[in-house]
Amino acid sequence: MSQPTSRSWLDDLPPAFQAYRNGRRLDEVECIIPDLNGMSRGKAMPLKNFSPDKPIFLPISIFYQTITGQDVEMDIANQWAESDMVLVPDMSTAMAVPWAKQPTLQIIHDLQGFDGKPIFCAPRNILKHVIGLYEQHGWKPVVAPELEFYLTRPNIDPNEPIQPPVGRSGRSGTALQSYSMTAVDEYGPVIDAIYDYAEAAGLHIDSVIQEDGAGQVEFNLTHGDPLLLADQVFYFKRIIKEAALNNGMFATFMAKPMRDQPGSAMHVHQSVVDIASGNNIFSDDKGNATDLFRHYIGGTQRHLIEVMPLIAPNVNSYRRFESEANSSAPTNTAWGYDNRATGLRVPHSGAQDRRLENRVIGVDTNPYLSIAASLACGYLGMVNKIEPGAPAEGELDDEQQAQSYIPTTFDEALRIFEGAEAVHQVLGGDFCQLYAEVKKEELRQFHREISPWEREHLLLNV
What we know:
Layout: H1 15-21, E1 28-34, E2 40-46, E3 56-59, E4 84-89, E5 95-96, E6 104-112, H2 123-136, E7 139-152, H3 181-186, H4 188-201, E8 207-210, E9 216-220, H5 226-245, E10 250-252, E11 266-274, H6 291-303, H7 308-311, E12 335-337, E13 344-346, E14 356-358, H8 367-384, H9 398-403, H10 410-418, H11 421-427, H12 429-447, H13 452-458
Parallel strand pairs: 1-6, 12-13
Antiparallel strand pairs: 1-2, 3-4, 4-6, 5-6, 7-9, 7-10, 7-11, 8-9, 11-14, 13-14
Helix pairs in contact: 2-8, 4-5, 5-8, 6-8, 8-11, 10-12, 11-12
């Protein structure tokens, strides 16, 4: 009598991966983590070398590097002792790498020390911590991100400006084509590849639209748990970039890749439900807005400028907030009902779907950190009962704009962030110190550069 075959962890992988694998031999496993900028880091290994129970290690110095790879020195004990972090796979995040030539699995890992405690600066741990603060009050936050990005011609020389892509018609894209189905069809092969990759990975796209800019596309994701949606944004950025590359284009999540085109945002819709009942705490039994909703708005208004380095994390991020033509980005923390001129919008909805849309967040953010920062603002509003200003109607006048301004430079944003004590308490003081130092070093590197504009207009004219 034959013995039953022992069950493997491979048998518990999601149905989407099993369909993608289709009986083929699994070739490789990618063990990945998001760094401070939301980039994928980690290790790839043959299947035989991976087990969910086998420790994997990476040095903590990954989090002490700028986006250029420059090391940042800080007054923290044993910073350069290269102490390792333990990678713990979250098997619920296991999914296909659809662009790989052979069946490949990717898994997001959590990070902890040898004592089992979460690594203080790991972005996924920061978001988990904020979600935990909500849970202590019996609350569960819900988010729905909207991702804007540009498809462009391949940009090989960084000194050359980025150009819109050439579509199936053989012509470059033009701006101001919002919601145009023809414009979306121009890049049909790339969009189809994104859908195919997403299906193989088990990810769901709620809708796709053409945004204002030439080659600018928006994907909307279904609402859900903040950690799950941050994981999906993290994965989608990889998917979109690979789909574009495999179709002769670049996909960029720069906030403002082209001077005369609109910037790209990651609008995040936010609501909170009561864990016990499942009801939206922003609405009462009669369907009216609650004090908690009002305070959530108030906290977001008060603290949003303090978390700007997390929701607008690069020098380029602040180009998106320019007030010139072709910029649809809000430049304020005002709020209003279905008012897209405000940074904080309350969309039309039923009572159970009452929510706040944060329209200030850029798509160039680390999704774990930007979602955590936005939720932290609302959390502080609810626990401290912060009252919001009056809702804005239509375009803001000069006085309203001045009262609800947001920093327009990275320098100013970092100065405000460093003094934001309440925010530091929620996100973690050590993390905020590290993040600020990394971003200040990136800013110093930027200011040392000489731009093409300076060479063009100052070289021979001053």
